[in-house]
Specification:
The chain is α+β, with helices and mostly antiparallel strands and 380 residues long. It has two domains: 170 residues, FAD/NAD(P)-binding domain, CATH 3.50.50; 181 residues, D-Amino Acid Oxidase, Chain A, domain 2, CATH 3.30.9. It is built from nine helices and 21 strands. The chain is globular and about 60 Å long. The chain starts with a strand and ends with a strand.
């Protein structure tokens, strides 16, 4: 086999598709029996990804819905609406998106092995011997934040995490369904936020916070969180149709991220924004780039990507600094005080709209209507 990719993830399937397109033999090993089950992502895709990644042009329209704005809530539940002209987020039916990506990869010649967990890799001349699978000339680890490929090869490991939980509810109507609802609260979500997403056929309600992966503890936090956001959407008496939970790496790209004839991509590499915890955009972008780099090497056109491609991974220097500040200096009273001010709106635009909001010189405008919750209704 020319290349084996561990993990039918966004990054793994993107890399596999590119390598197969180049006429090389590539397989994807996935421990799950269904690439769409037991996901650990809310599935938000930013407009920047849609603009930059042609692969997404082919995604079935019924798997996505555009959400054009953000409603940002302070701990007091006062909020501002943030918009940038022409900008939007795509909420996705993520399980079906992953199934579509896997099926498309197979159509392009990728051998997708489901229910096939990675065991170990032994370095041999010309590549690796994979336990139970055979030899491969190149190995890509796209197997999540606790990468077994990284452990097997002695590569870096993610050590800084957020732990998140999300409930999905069907048949609900959200009053402001053109917004991603984001809630700041240091007690409930230290180091991150809570959210309500008007998804595809569902409403997604979740939060992430700095804590050890303790499902029981975060369930107790979720109860308090659901009570707090009840004036916006009351789901306290409802049973979710599905529950997602998992760890989100937030420490930046790990080191080392590659070795001879092997490299890591996506969450396995820590390629997740330390501030927003968004990883789909970078996973797709660098997964595609990794596929081309590995294909070039296997075709004899360049040196092993382990020596140069890893240098193209984002460093997240500023975002890691913001992560440090948010972890150590997050203050509820500060957000309550500053929510509707111009500096706060500008900072929020940087985070949510990637420099397209209030700081865009071409006249992009951020709506800043500040409101509060009273008696279950929004009032000025």
């Amino acid at each position: 086999m020319d290349c084996t990719i561990v993990g039918a993830s966004f990054a793994g399937l993107a890399a596999a598709s590119v390598i197969a397109q180049r006429g090389l033999r590539v397989r994807v090993m996935e421990r799950k029996a269904d690439p769409g089950e037991k996901l650990h992502t809310t599935g938000i895709i930013v407009k920047d990804a849609v603009d930059q990644i042609a692969l997404l042009d082919l995604m079935p329209s019924e798997f996505v819905r555009a959400v054009p704005g953000v409603r940002l809530y302070a701990p007091s539940m006062r909020y501002v609406d943030l918009d940038a002209p022409g900008y939007y987020f795509l909420a996705t039916d993520t399980p079906n998106v992953m199934r579509w990506l896997a099926a498309r990869a197979e159509q392009m010649g990728v051998e997708v092995l489901l229910d096939s967990p990675f065991q170990s890799a032994t370095r041999v001349r010309g590549g690796y011997e994979l336990d139970g699978v055979g030899e491969t000339r190149y190995l890509i680890g796209a197997d999540g934040p606790n990468s077994q490929v990284a452990r097997s090869l002695g590569l870096g490991l993610n050590r800084e995490f957020l732990f998140g939980m999300e409930y999905e509810f069907e048949g609900l109507a959200l009053a402001a369904d053109d917004r991603l609802h984001c809630f700041i609260d240091r007690k409930l979500a230290p180091g991150y936020i809570g959210w309500i997403v008007p998804g595809v056929g569902v409403v997604q309600v979740g939060l992430a916070r700095r804590m050890r992966p303790d499902a029981d503890a975060i369930k107790r936090v979720m109860e308090k969180y659901l009570a707090k956001i009840a004036p916006v959407l009351d789901v306290r008496t409802l049973e979710p149709q599905s529950i997602r939970a998992g760890m989100i790496p937030c420490g930046g790209v790990i080191r080392p991220v590659a070795t001879e004839r092997a490299l890591l991509v996506g969450d396995a590499a820590g390629m997740v924004s330390p501030v927003t915890a968004g990883g789909i955009h970078t996973a797709l972008k660098h997964g595609l780039a990794a596929g081309h780099a590995v294909a070039d090497f296997l075709e004899g056109k360049c040196d092993d990507p382990c020596h140069w491609f890893a240098k193209t991974y984002p460093r997240f220097r500023k975002k890691r600094l913001l992560r440090f500040l948010f972890d150590h200096f997050q203050s509820d009273w500060f957000f309550n005080l500053m929510l509707a001010t111009a500096p706060m709106r500008m900072a929020a635009s940087q985070v949510y709209f990637h420099r397209r909001g209030a700081l865009t010189p071409a006249g992009a405008r951020v709506s800043t209507t500040a409101k509060a919750v009273k008696g279950g209704e929004f009032v000025k």
